[in-house]
Specification:
- The protein has 11 helices and 12 strands.
- With 303 residues, it is α/β, with parallel strands linked by helices.
- Strand 8 (195-198), helix 8 (206-218) and strand 9 form a beta-alpha-beta unit.
- The longest helix has 28 residues, at 60-87.
């Protein structure tokens, strides 16, 4: 098998016109250069140089290998430049996975800011609901996954670092004219006897639902779900129709639905913790670090 490094030595001899000149340029002795050429000739099975006066010139085989050595050198230089661009965050692709409300409330602003700093980096963006984005991180199918974590239930994912983005508290959504609508802040226990409108996917919404169930348990009751839907806007429509109350996180409220009022809740206040799940070996790479910084900035705008 031909040795690439010896091919580059041959190229230096051919382009400089002599073994002595090549030795000077490469910082070797003429003897070391001659030995490298001899070994390469054995590998090639053909003579590569012939003497011409005080110098040398390539044989047909030598010319062929010299041309290929040039191509290899150019390709290696291209690879090194591409690797440097990727390392410095100038090119490449980041796969970003998220759930619906993070996509609506965080991702657009973060992406707009990110592209100002890394215009050549491609972002592969996808809302993966009803799949929980944390599974995309665990399976290695995402470079940044925006995930929900319940208090005291921090997942242990080998090789994945969780970077906190924001805390997203829940509010009570009540029908206009509800007896509790006059209060600015509602005790969670006051909602114990109400019909509840469930609003989570049964797959990706497990964590969010568990946050509510844990909070209600702390307040001494289990919510009675009378209706089930898969999104926050539909839930607010049911509430506006007087069919129940619902608990919706700040990121999911969107535009207020006519016929509803939104009130803060305490004792306790349910909160979902939102994190970016990132492979540990990429978290400090420039493009990834910039995207996380942009996500945090977007989160500050809604907190």
């Amino acid at each position: 098998m031909l040795d690439v490094r010896r091919m580059q030595v041959l190229r230096a001899v051919v382009t400089s016109g002599s073994i002595t000149a090549a030795a000077t340029n490469l910082g070797y002795t003429p003897s070391a250069i001659s030995q490298q050429i001899s070994v390469l000739e054995r590998e090639a099975g053909l003579p590569l140089l012939e003497k011409v006066g005080r110098g040398v010139q390539p044989t047909a085989a030598g010319k062929l290998l010299t041309e290929h050595a040039g191509v290899i050198a150019d390709n290696l230089a291209d690879a090194e430049r591409a690797l440097a661009d990727l390392r410095e965050g100038r090119t490449g692709t980041l796969r970003v996975r998220y759930f619906y409300t993070a996509g609506a409330g965080l991702v657009p602003q973060a992406v707009a800011e990110f592209r100002k700093e890394h215009p050549s980096v491609r972002l592969d963006l996808a809302n993966v609901e009803p799949i929980d984005p944390i599974h995309e991180a665990a399976a290695g199918r995402a470079d940044v996954s925006i995930v929900v974590v319940a208090e005291g239930r921090m997942p242990q994912l080998p090789g994945i670092q969780l970077v906190h983005l924001l805390d997203d508290p829940y509010s009570a959504v009540l029908p206009d004219g509800h007896p509790l609508a006059d209060k600015e802040v509602i005790d969670l226990a006051d909602l114990a006897g109400e019909p509840w409108v469930d609003n989570e996917h049964y797959a990706s919404g497990w964590t969010c639902r568990q946050i509510l169930l844990d909070a209600c348990a702390s307040a001494g009751f289990s919510p009675s779900f009378s209706l089930q839907c898969n999104d926050y806007q539909t839930a607010q429509g049911f509430v506006a129709a007087g069919l129940g109350i619902s608990m919706i996180p700040r990121l999911g409220l969107g535009t207020a639905t006519p016929g509803t009022v939104v009130r803060s809740v305490h004792r306790p206040e349910p909160v979902r913790r939102i994190y970016a799940a990132v492979p540990e070996f990429t978290v400090d790479q420039p493009a990834t670090a910039t995207l996380i910084r942009c996500l945090r900035a977007a989160a500050e705008g809604v907190s």
